[in-house]
Structure formats: C-alpha cells, structure tokens
Design brief:
Chain A is about 35% helix and about 20% strand. Chain A has about 325 residues and is α/β, with parallel strands linked by helices. Chain A has 2 domains: about 1-180, Thiamin diphosphate (ThDP)-binding fold, Pyr/PP domains (Rossmann fold, 3-Layer(aba) Sandwich), CATH 3.40.50; about 195-325, Rossmann fold (3-Layer(aba) Sandwich). Chain A has a 7-stranded mixed sheet, sandwiched between helices. In chain A, strands 9-11-10-13-14 form a 5-stranded mixed sheet, sandwiched between helices. Chain A has a two-stranded antiparallel ribbon with strand order 1-8. Chain B has helices spanning about 15-40, 55-60, 75-80, 85-95, 125-140, 160-170, 200-205, 215-230, 255, 265-270, 280-290, 295-315, 325-330, and strands at about 70, 145-150, 175-180, 185, 190, 210, 235-240. Chain B is built from 13 helices and 7 strands. In chain B, the strands form 2 sheets. In chain B, strands 1-2-3-7-6 form a 5-stranded parallel sheet, with helices on both faces. A two-stranded antiparallel sheet of chain B has the order 4-5. Chain B is of the alpha/beta class and about 325 residues long. In chain B, strand 2 (about 145-150), helix 6 and strand 3 (about 175-180) form a beta-alpha-beta unit. Classes of the chains: A alpha/beta (about 325), B alpha/beta (about 325). At the A-B interface, helix 3, helix 5 and helix 6 of A face helix 5 and helix 6 of B.
C-alpha cells in the first residue's frame, strides 16, 4: 500500500498495462504533455508509436479508435472533457456501441475512453458536463466512475483488459486527491458496488463526484441520530443492482446523489430500478439529489448553487426519514 | 471460381476473366436481390451497386485478405470483391442465423473481419475514420498492409473526410481513399450541394487522381499504384472513380419520392449502354482482343447465375436469426 494521488494511480495502471501488452496504444488530445496528468511520462517511456498527440478532431478520433481496435490493438483514447464526447458522438453511438452486435459478434473493440466530467472549477458549461446518462443509454458501452485512488487503479486496469468499449470518467479537478493504493496488480471488477459507510435508516447511493459531499452529509446526519448507508456504485454499466436493493431492503429508504442533470440521470435509472424491484421495501418516496435541468454557469457562486451540496443531500435524507414515513 | 483477394505484387495474377467473373457475380447477385425485394422475401431494404462494379472489383484486385476495407451503404460489391462469401451474405440479407453477421446487421452492414472487411456502414462517411484507424494499426504492425476506404461523393461532404485525410497525411498512414463518384448524394445531385471539385480537396493532402470508374483496368491500375505507395511507406492516396448508380438510392425508392425525380430516365439509359456499362465494356474488350470466345463468357454467366441461385437456396433453407443473440453478444466478456 502507498498513498497516491488518484491521477498517479491511473498513470501507474497505464504504465503497467503498456508494459504488459505491447499492443496497447494511447492517443488523444495532448496526451504527450499529459495536460490531465494521467498520461504523464508515457511518451518518454514507450515512444511516439504508442503514445501520440492527435489533431483536435473528435469525430475522427473516436472512429479511429474503432479502426485501430479492429486492426488488433488495445486502445486508450483520451478525450479530455465529457463535453468532447458530444463532438465525437457518431463513432461512439453508431460504431463503438453497436458493431459487436451488428457484426454478429465478429468485432471485438477493446477501447477505453478517458474523459473528465463534472463542475466545481468555474470551467463553464462546455467543460463541465456529466455525460454518462447519454452513454448509459447507448447500450454496448461500459461506464466506470472511480472515486478514489485504489478504485481508479483497479477499475482502469479492468477497463483496459476488457473486450468491450469502456468509458473511464474522471472527476474533473479531483485528480490530486490522495488515497491508499494496493501495490502491484490490482483489479476491481465491474458491477460491484462499494459500501462506504454502513447505516440503518436510509440508503444513499452517491455517484462519482458526489461521494465526497455525501460522506460529509452522512457524518452530519449521524450527529442528529440518522444512520445513513452510503453506497458508491463504482460502475454505472454494469450496475450492481443487488447491493443497492439489499441495502434498501434493510433501510426502506433511498436517496440517490448524482451530478448529472436531473432528467434521465443515472439517479433516475437507479430510482427506477428500486421502484421496479424493491417497491415492497420502500417506506418513503425515493429522492434524487441532482443538478437541475440547466447548464452550469461560470460564476463560482452560481455554479455551486446547482451542484448537490452536503446540505442539500442532508435535507433530502431528513425528508425521507421524517416521522410521517416511519 | 477464382479466389478474390490475390495480390498485384504478382503472388497470383488476377486475370481479366477473373475480373469479369467477379463483376458479373456482383451484378447477378444484385439483380436477384431486386427480385427478392419485390416479392417480399427480404425483411429490410437494399442499396444496390449495379453499374459501379468496376470500382470494387478493380480496387480489390490489388489487395489481399490481410488488407482492410471499409464500405458504404452500398456494400455488397465491396464485400464480394474482397472475398466475402455469397452464401453468408445472402443469408444475412435474408435475416438468417447463417448470415455473415448472424442476421444482426443485414444488407447495409455486411462485414467479414477475417477477410479484412470491416463492414458496410449505415452512417454516410463513417468509414473515413475507421479506415484511418485501421491504417494506423497496419503501419504500427509494419507488415505492409493497407486500409482502403470506399466512399461516395455524398460522404465527401462529411467533415471527417478532411479530418481523416489530415491524420493520414500527417502520420504517413497507408490509407487509400477510393471515392465512388456517382454524382448523387442519396436523392440529391451532389453538384448542387458541393463547393469545388472533390479531387482538389484531396490534393491538399496527398497524391490524388481521377479515373474512369467504369473501366476496371483503369481502377485497378490507379488503386494499384496507390496501394503500392502505401505498402512502401509512401503514405495515403486518393483515387476518384467516376461512375454511375443505375438503381435508386435504395430499392423501391419511387415509393418515397412521391412522384418527384432527381435525374432522368435518359441519364440512366445512357450509363446502361454497352459503351458505358463496366461489364459490357470488359466483355467487348475481351472479345476484340480474342482473349476468349463469346461462348466462354456465356459459360461464366451461366455458372455465376447458378452460384447465385444456390446462394438463394442456402439463405431460404437457413434457420431464422436467434433473437437471444441481441442479449448475449452486445457486450464482450468482461
């Protein structure tokens, strides 16, 4: 074990996987200087054949990833920000997500796409989106949202070794957060949620960036005698429905915290799953704590007012745990 | 039957009779699809390549199974010319479990990865980037493989045309861009929506040439030069093949046009004449040169027709697609 920044954990996993598999190629916008930090040092170590700055042309980069994978390579494509997923969307939605099915299983596409998501840094609306709801809806894509250094290493390694296109979404601005990371090979399987805090009164599913404010809220709620169980799903596709349902069976209450916009958010999906499969357990309405259906503004106070805060999360928990639902 | 996919480098010479037979196979197969489409045998639509056979056949004559191609909506010709199996293609178009894509893709998505056929594609222009990525892989592997992108003049107005030529040129990739200029973008005359000659767009990045796309030798020679350059590390090339689409954008398009037209019957008839049609032109040349007598060409035609009927029989005798597959093959193993 060693304490490492989240971004360093990803970098470690990349180095290890590139050493393990010489057909692993990393490309994308500014990966050589590693503006986002996760690809730092790779070009010096592995050379420009395997680590390469691309032109800025997302619709071609995503398609190239498909072609390169078809030619027998493992591909890591860095798209920097979730918003650039939109400019690269054709090959994501029409090729990556679908070609395995459309070719009758002939085409394996071991592609990992890295992109930062979320606000909180005054990057304004075109660099702050949380795009995973759109990806979740395409079918054929796996989506990972690591929230700590150990999971970042473990989920990234699993993503790269997989045989299905996977989006590895990094919380923007959180790469510097420290955490314990297992030494050597470390894999975290997809579809296995992590129960970060056990509790009896309410289940709070916190996605990605929302884990931190949720844990803060849970601590404050504990002071008031409310015991919250906090679950980090770690991957949204596949989603560990059983762990969430098992927790709701115990607590009877569900709050889902998500930095995506409310409409069709991952929170909406999780709420629907629990309504479908766990209705009999529920003793209170499900509450979603999300970003309203607006773009994130630039001004720090205006942005902060929209992103779920510990206070908003705690309010939602207090609502579902009030006496009328006992 | 000759085996398509032999190599211009002389490993196995592709004879004129091979070229003739391959073009004829595409023609007869698609004529049979018109019948099947009309009699309701097919679950979905088909986009036919009739009239453009010389492009796929000429170009693929200089490739091997190890080379990659990306194709278009109109992919039957590329599939067959690159060595795809007719039985498996028909079974696919009939929606059967024995189809090359197990009935999951259909006419617009025939692919055979084992033959380097990375698929026909329903998104106009999607092949640019896929071929460029495959070309990058080919270059990294260092075995002299190339990736050829077949596309139409309609696709040339997609932004990824420029983007993919740019990457291919900047990185000296073995990408061969083969434009099938048939003059129409679906139901719109391309000249009404395009600024400037397409070939000039390509010239900004790479060697670019325009050839008679209905002359199979001209296509073979131009693409052959481009492929040789790519194999030798000389980077990408562009070949524009002037041709014509005899059938509609898709079969039964008249039901969608509401009585409107985007070209005249005279235009179509002119391109169907023996001095324009790629198959008739090659036949005329073979007969004039005394390469073979008329009876030999007729015998090839008879064999091809039998082959096509056998493929229909195979498709019709095949079990329907397995609906469960959609659930089991969408995701790869973890």
């Amino acid at each position: 074990m060693a304490r490492k920044r989240l971004i360093t954990a990803v970098n470690d996993a990349l180095v290890a996987e590139m050493e393990r598999d010489e057909k692993l190629i990393v490309f994308g916008e500014d990966v050589e200087l590693a503006i986002m930090g996760d690809t730092r040092g790779l070009v010096g170590r592995f050379g420009r054949d395997r680590v390469r700055n691309s032109p800025i042309c997302e619709q071609t980069l995503t398609g190239m990833a498909v072609g390169l994978a078809s030619a027998g390579y493992r591909v890591v494509l860095h798209l920097m920000f979730n918003n650039f997923i939109y400019t690269g969307m054709d090959a994501i939605g029409n090729q990556m997500a679908k070609l395995r099915l459309m070719t009758g299983g002939q085409m394996e596409l071991p592609i990992t796409v890295i992109a930062g998501y979320g606000g909180g840094n005054s990057n304004a609306a075109q660099h702050s989106d949380t795009a995973y709801p759109a990806l979740m809806n395409l079918g054929g894509l796996r989506v990972a949202v690591p929230t700590n250094s150990a999971d970042a290493k473990g989920l990234f390694t699993t993503a790269v070794r997989g045989r299905t296109p996977t989006f590895f979404l990094e919380a923007a601005g959180r790469g510097g957060e420290m955490g314990e990371v297992p030494d050597g090979e470390h894999l975290v399987p997809f579809g296995q949620a992590d129960v970060l805090r056990e509790g009896d009164d309410v289940t709070v599913v916190a996605i990605g960036t929302m884990v931190k404010p949720t844990l803060r809220a849970a601590k404050a709620l504990a002071d008031d005698g409310i015991s919250a169980e906090v679950i980090d799903p770690r991957t949204l596709v596949p989603l560990d429905e059983d762990t969430i349902l098992g927790s709701v069976a115990k607590t009877g209450r569900l709050v889902v915290v998500d930095e995506a916009r409310d409409r069709c958010s991952a929170a909406s999906q999780i709420a629907a799953v629990v309504a479908d499969r766990g209705f009999a357990s529920l003793r209170a309405p499900v509450r979603r704590v999300t970003v309203p259906d607006v773009a994130l503004p630039y001004a720090r106070n205006a942005e902060a007012a929209l992103i779920p805060s510990p206070e908003r999360i705690a309010d939602a928990v207090r609502h579902v745990t009030q006496k009328q639902f006992a | 039957m000759a085996t398509p996919g032999t190599d211009v480098r002389g490993h196995t010479a592709v004879t004129d009779l091979d070229l003739y037979e391959r073009m004829l196979l595409i023609r007869r197969a698609e004529e049979r699809l018109i019948v099947a489409c009309t009699d309701g045998s097919l679950p979905g639509g088909v986009h036919l390549y009739i009239g453009e056979e010389a492009v796929a056949v000429g170009a693929c004559a200089v490739m091997t199974d190890d080379d990659f191609v990306t194709s278009t909506h109109r992919g039957h010709g590329h599939f067959l010319a690159k060595g795809g199996d007719l039985d498996a293609m028909f079974a696919e178009i009939w929606g059967r479990a024995t189809g090359i894509c197990k009935g999951m893709g259909g006419s617009m998505h025939v692919a055979d990865v084992s033959k380097g056929i990375l698929g026909a594609n329903g998104i106009v222009g999607a092949g640019f980037a896929i071929a460029t990525g495959a070309a990058w892989g080919a270059k990294l592997a260092g075995q002299g493989r190339v990736a050829t992108c077949f596309f139409g003049d309609g696709a040339a107005n997609q932004g990824s045309f420029m983007e993919s030529m740019n990457v291919s040129a900047a990185w000296d990739l073995p990408t061969v861009f083969v434009c099938e200029d048939n003059g129409v973008s679906e139901f719109t005359v391309t000249s009404t929506v395009s600024g400037g000659p397409l070939v000039e767009r390509a010239r900004a990045f790479m060697p670019a040439t325009v050839v008679d796309g209905n002359d199979v030798h001209a296509v073979r020679d131009a693409v052959g030069e481009a492929v040789e350059r790519a194999r030798a590390g000389g980077g990408p090339s562009y070949v524009e093949a002037t041709t014509y689409r005899i059938r509609g954008h898709l079969e039964a398009e008249q039901h969608m046009l509401g009585g409107g037209t985007y070209r005249t019957d005279d235009d179509i008839a002119a391109w169907q004449a023996d001095d324009k049609d790629p198959i008739a032109r090659l036949a005329t040349r073979l007969l004039a040169e005394g390469t073979c007598p008329r009876e030999d060409l007729d015998a090839i035609d008879a064999a091809v027709r039998n082959r096509v009927e056998a493929a229909v029989a195979f498709a019709e005798a095949s079990p329907p697609a397995d609906p469960e597959l959609a659930h089991t093959i969408m995701f790869g193993p973890a």
